[in-house]
Amino acid sequence: MTRKLIVVGVSHRTAPLSIRERLAVPAEQLSAELDAVAKRAGLAEAVMISTCNRVEIIGTAEEPVRAERAMLDYWNGRVLPEQIDSHVYRHVGREAARHLFRVASGLDSMVLGEPQILGQVKDAYGVAQRTGTVGMQLGRSFERCFGVAKRVRTETALAAGNVSVSSIACDLAEKIFGDLKDRRVLLVGAGKMSEVAARSLTASGAHLYVVNRSPARAQSLAAACGGTPRPLEALATELAEADVVISSTAKQGYVVTYDLMQAVCKIRRYRPLFVIDIAVPRDVDPRIDSLRNVFLYDMDDLQKVSRENLAARERAIVPAEEIIEQELGELERFLRSVELTPTIVALRERVHGVLRAELERTLPKLAVDDASRRKLEAMCDAMANKLLHQPLTELKQGETGPEGANLVEAVQRLFGLDASAPRSGKGPQSAESPEPALAAERGSKH
Amino acid sequence: MSFVTVLFVATALAYVAAAMLFSAHLRGRGATSERWATRTLGLAIAAHVAFLGTDYALSGRAPLSTMHETLAVLSLLIAVSFLATMRRHRLVVLGAFITPVTLLLFLGAALRGPVGRVPDGVRSALLPFHIAVNVLGLAAFALAFAVAVAYVIQEQLLRKRQLGGIFQRLPSLDVLDSLGFRLVTIGFPLFTLGVITGSFWAVRLGSASPTNFSAGQGFAVLAWLFFATVLLSRVAGGWRGRRAAIGTMLGFLCAMVAVGGYVLRGFGG
After folding, report:
1. Which residues span the domain enclosing B50?
2. Does residue B58 belong to the interface with chain A, where contact is any CB pair within 8 Å?
3. Is B160 in the A-facing interface, judged by CB distances under 8 Å?
4. Does the complex come out with an ipTM higher than 0.95?
5. How far does A137 lie from chain B, in Å, by closest CA?
6. What is the DSSP letter of A268?
7. Which end of chain B lies in a sparser environment, N or C, as judged by fewer CB atoms within 10 Å?
8. CA distance A286 to A273
């Protein structure tokens, strides 16, 4: 019987954090955990993805229903006394492959189209390869899913335009200053959000200065982000030196007033200045946006950009799903062709084998000479070939048709063939339980 | 239609096609439009060279001896220097602004005025020098003009928070600002020499008295003043970004009015 791709998991869509966190597996334990789950659930191949937004197992099994039950039981032990069942999604066959493609492309992510998930899927696949739980079918499915994710990224706008406020601010700074290397970034106030934005700016080579009412907080934030703390009294001089200002104080009223900025502009000889005001209430007088070469963006502006970019990503969902459907077809065709060849070989061996065996048993009783013996053998082969002609033609034609998979499975069942087992010559019984198949594939990985 | 005319029309059409492709690329229509736009511009340049060569072979005159021929050379120089410099710096998108300028100047070459040739009285050894420095200076200014237009658009988009396709495709404000400044710096000394030699003529012909100052000369001096202000104010502080860009645009437009006056009325103003 052929193995089916199966996915069982929980994600931000189906399970609350309280469940996900109990199922999440730390990176260093992933390999052992994967090995244990695969054995217990009787999976021939398995990959385990564990991120903060999803924990899922992708595997291949001959009996998907049994494997799924075993995986659920395994997880139920973790979340007692709750029951995991209502939080789990499960997919089999084409649906499972589609799910994998969608996850890797970022279609199933909390932030649509975010790029990290592809790296996480690749890492999970790498762990599974090292653990030895990846065979041909999963290997091919994952390779295909990496290709799909790349196509979606380049051919659609699913990953285009940043949606997080801090990365939008960073993008804008680059659109004003080009290279951010050696530019001066000034943090006014020490909010969490400004820290995130400052980090992405300094990652591009900018220098960071921190002005805060509490010198201790300025000190600690500067130390955390590799910046220099400055006293609050130095605000005007720092504004005159800065290229990018990120303001996020908790103060009521403007910290950067129009008059202050007007004076600063003269001192800085109207060099461009990008001011990001992410404080609510606002820190910066909105009128400074009209000053020469001063560009002011507040929280509303950044969130508007974020919404627009997200809307553009949402428009890319349909074309992305189309790519996934195309690639699913490709994957199925490939897997079917891989399955078909051993089935044809096994069917031929079976029919020829039976006829030859019967001939061998009968020949001694007939006392025929060599010439007649050869004729009888030839007759046997001809009978086999004639019998096989129609079924083989149908099988080969079915390779591209929709009923191909059913046909292969039917032939395997009718003739008691097992094409998925490694052809070790043990015969059709060699892979009745999935364990030997798993062991054989693991052996072949080393 | 003569062969030269066919080449002229072909060149103009190729520039139109290139301008349309560059503009489509700027607006984000089609992924391969940038490559095709560059190729089409290359084709236009080839046709342009063929046109100039044929024209020279048929007329026997050097390409710079009439005003319309000078315009044909100037537009070729702009297109070639654009392709030669901007491709390396991934600024091909600016073709959307530069190609139309090239096209307009090239079309100006078709306006053969009644007094196309330089009057014999004005001929001197200085003439080729005067024309050459002006052509080189104007080519740099034309590029600076296109860059300045891109700057003004980009700044406007940033201020209006329209951060879509065009904003993403155009280079950063800093790149546009410093590139524009560099181009003005290159063009200015050349154009200065052009204006000085031009004034020298005007004096020799006795037309430079305050009462007899032609509009063309006036606009040339005005253009020179704009560019001088762009350069000086930047060094002295203040005229960065939008102001410098607008100064550059006005300077180039004045220079074009001066050139246009000559094209329509012949040499000498």
Report:
1. 3-265
2. no
3. no
4. no
5. 35
6. T
7. N
8. 14
